[in-house]
């Protein structure tokens, strides 16, 4: 991992210091199940590079993550889903490492982050 922060929970997941349920990965991106899912299959897609917001993320990593988000959305099998990405505390970002939520919607009880 080229740019990492040992105090960041998602960097520790990339390094496998903290376990996660991995779904898919590329050289630059990792997809794993959210620990507190708001619907079945709620998945997080992150860059293997520590950046707090997408404006801090090098384009190379941003370019890699889009196709991974698409692949995960297809893999869930859901025809309805939300892709959410929060930047900054005011925008409800709680983990300070860029992440895209892929949230399948199969019934009207499925929530949002
Ligand atoms: P945010 O609110 O920052 O957009 O989303 C952070 C997400 O990370 C939340 O949905 C939360 O459940 C998830 N999360 C926080 N810590 C962990 C963890 O240690 N493992 C996993 N798999 N997900 C986590
Ligand atoms: Zn990080």
Describe the structure.
The protein has 113 residues and is of the alpha+beta class. It has one domain: HIT-like (HIT family, subunit A, 2-Layer Sandwich). Helices cover 21% and strands 22% of the residues. A five-stranded antiparallel beta sheet has the order 1-2-3-5-4, with helices on one face. Strand 1 (22-25) and strand 2 (29-33) form a beta hairpin. The protein is globular. 29% of the residues are buried. The chain binds guanosine-5'-monophosphate and zinc ion (ZN). The site of guanosine-5'-monophosphate has 15 residues, from strand 2.
Whole-number radius of gyration? 13 Å
Spatial order of the strands forming the largest sheet: 1-2-3-5-4
Stated plainly, the CATH topology is called: HIT family, subunit A
Mean pLDDT: 95
- Beta content comes to 15-25%
| Low-pLDDT residue spans | none
Number of helices: 2
Question: Which distinct ligands sit in these coordinates?
Answer: guanosine-5'-monophosphate, zinc ion
> For the terminal residues, how far apart are their CA atoms?
28 Å
Number of domains: 1
Shape: globular
Helix content: 10-25%
Please count the beta strands (DSSP E, at least 2 residues each). Answer: 5
The CATH architecture name reads 2-Layer Sandwich
CATH hierarchy class name: Alpha Beta
One letter per element, helices H and strands E, the order comes to: HEEEHEE
CATH superfamily: HIT-like
- Give a quick account of the main beta sheet: strands, pairing sense, barrel closure: 5 strands, antiparallel
Global structural class = alpha+beta
GO molecular function: catalytic activity
GO biological process, one term: nucleotide metabolic process
Organism: Rhodocollybia butyracea
Protein name: HIT-like domain-containing protein
């Amino acid at each position: 991992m080229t740019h990492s922060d040992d105090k960041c929970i998602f960097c520790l997941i990339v390094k496998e210091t903290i376990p996660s349920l991995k779904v898919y990965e590329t050289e630059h991106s990792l997809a794993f199940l959210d620990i507190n899912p708001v619907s079945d299959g709620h998945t997080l897609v992150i860059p293997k590079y520590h950046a707090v917001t997408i404006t801090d993320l090098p384009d190379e990593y941003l370019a890699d993550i889009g196709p991974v988000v698409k692949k995960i959305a297809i893999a869930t099998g859901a025809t309805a889903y939300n892709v959410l990405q929060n930047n900054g505390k005011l925008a409800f970002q709680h983990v300070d490492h860029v992440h895209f939520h892929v949230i399948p919607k199969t019934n009207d009880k499925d929530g949002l982050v």
